Amino acid sequence: MIGFLLPLSLALATAPELTDANYAATKRLVLPSAEEVAYREIPWKAALWDAIVEARDTDRPILLWAMNGHPLGCT
Amino acid sequence: MQRLARSFVPVADEVGRLQRGTDPECVLFQAVAEKGHYAGRTEPTNTRQGTYALTPSGIFLASVNTRSPKDMARMLETALEKWKTLSRDDRLGVADPRATTGAIERYESLFPAGGLALRVTSRDLPRAGGGEPAEPRGHRDWRVKAWNQDTAWFKPEEARELLPPAPAKPGDRREVPKPLVDRIVRAHLIDNVRGQTTCYAETEVVAASLASTVEAENGNRVFVRLDGATRAAAKGQWPVAGFQDMTAPKEHERGMETTLLGRAEFDVASGRFVAFELVASGSRWGATQYNGREDDPGPAPIAFVFALDETAAAVAPAWHWIYGWK
Question: Which residue, A53, B232, B239, B247, has most beta carbons within 10 Å?
Answer without folding.
Answer: B232
